[in-house]
Amino acid sequence: MKMNKKIMIAAAIACFASVQSASAIDFKHAYTQCGLGGIIGNAAGDDSGIVAIITNVTFDLGTTAVISAATDGCSGKSGKMASLVNDAYVPLEQDIAQGQGEYLDAMLATAGCDTADKATVANVRQDFAAEVVAPGYASKTQFEKSEAMFNVFQANTAQCSS
Question: Is 135 exposed, middle or buried (0-12, 13-18, 19+ CB in 10 A)?
Fold first, then answer.
């Protein structure tokens, strides 16, 4: 296990260090300022970006960070949704199960959805329930569970205005 972490850290640092061209600067920004890694790195006060890079690579190989950078510059709804999932996973999970609640309303509002949109709520509940009952869900890490919840919200709120 320790060897895998060392390899991942080394790979992340190598990726960070190899960023040189103008187009790669966007990736540097994405991996250091966007996605869950950007949120955690900024909260931790890590100005070097290493915490953000490692978190983004560990979380989903940086996919969310790159998508967030490409679609909303890391300050739009994707970044805010990722932050909310990270900060309030358990109460969000409870609200989704109940089909209502302040955390679910906050997530819908962050996504630009009407909090009274019963169809979106029903779709989120259905898709997240499928995730929760899937084999192996209980043994997933908190990051993996958060990623699953984030992906459910992303898929079901894409039609909402920002």
Answer: exposed
